Amino acid sequence: MLDLNLLRVLDAIYTHGSLSGASRALGLTQPGVSLALRRLREHFGDDLFFRQGSAMAPTALAEQLRVPVQRVMGTVRSEITAAGSFDPATAERCFVINLSDLGELSFLPDLVASCAAAAPKVTLRSVDVGLDHLLPDLAAGTIDLAVGHLTQVDSTSLFEQTLFDHEFVCLARVDHPVITDTLSLEQYLAVDHVVVMQPGRSQERFENRVRDLGLKRRIALQSPHFMSVPLLVAQSDMITVVPRSVGTIFTHLLRLKILPLPFHVEPVELKQFWHRRAHADPGVIWLRKQVAELFRGQNPTESGRSPFWSRFGAMEP
Q1: I need a labelling partner for 305 at 20 to 30 A (CA). Which of 4, 95, 187, 236 fits?
Q2: Domain of 286?
Q3: Is 0.70 surpassed by the pTM of this model?
């Protein structure tokens, strides 16, 4: 068996062409490098290098070994040694984040900009899988991070960090014929509703609250997505209940107004989740830190610290 440390010495002699240069590069004494070369010579039964002026020239066998040795050491540096570290300035890695359509709208503008500035070769991929698939994918490492609100989380295998609380608001068009600047429970129940149904997400919490209160609405439209809902509300007499970030964004784009709900609903906590298998992964640690620095304690769509939304929010509704 050949000691891998001896291959490091061999690689350094190839690169620097001398025992003194190899010793400086490796942080070893020159006698230590000479001892390693003697062991290499004994292993291969060949001198490997001979003096040619002030340099060490390779023998035919050493020349034959050059490419395989450099290939092995390149693999050790790029795939084995690097596995214990993460340098965002040079890392080439694709991180997979589980986000809902609302999560993409709220989180991605700032996160993409932050990653591009700190880690120019890092890429992001957003996915939205059901809860049945999310936990196995986190466990398998095919998803690195999940951001948002998840119900029925398996706390024995996942770590979590709270980012901020999210409240629900009602959206109606500015010139609604019935609803003005306030919303009574009678008005809420009398008009038509667009309802978003997303099992395992924050909207499920709101729908459970409506059911527990025994409120009966007329649901004119039900959808699994948020993105089309404000457009539909803006051109009809229907109303909808959405997380505040959705309302904040779309009141700047459409003739919509935000109204407080006429009954109490507890805010939901938005968090980031990761599996214990990725807890010590340097890359995922870096990604979690980016998310925490950007979003912990602040809704990005209403934050003056958000690089993207602070400019967007300056627009007149």
Answers
A1: 95
A2: 94-165+269-312
A3: no
